[in-house]
Amino acid sequence: MTILPNIKDILNWKKSEFRWSTYNTTIWFWYTYYKESDAITIPEYQRDYIWSQEQKENFIRSLFYWVSIPPLILNKAKNWLDWIIVDWSQRFRTLKLFFENKLIVDGVSFDSLEVVQRRRFLNKTLSYIETNFSTEQEEKEFYRLLNTSGTQHTKEEIQKAR
Known about the structure:
alpha/beta; five-stranded mixed sheet; 39% helix
């Protein structure tokens, strides 16, 4: 049984309480939230932090290369001040490691960046989607929708790009 609205309901605006807003902001914005570590929650239904070292490094590289990154998906917490990560936990955790200098990529740590380099990095734009799910069950269903509809590349397909 699904609790998210079906397409007809969305088209007819019968479920107007189900909506989201898309925003663009900078890494600087997320850096300030990282400093307030309790402002963003990673819920229990999220998978453990499983990214390999290569995945972590490639994510940080992609930020320096200004590659388009899929949007962070957040749900407003009940206090309307904090957020719950619905999707992006692997990336968010990796970004935190980089901010804490626990992840060094190509000999570069966050603190080793010169002021101008750090500003350039922190001014990179990231998109995020803010949802207004009223229950954790809705968050979980949306999480499953996002994370079970793709087809993972095979090793052979990745090898073609090497």
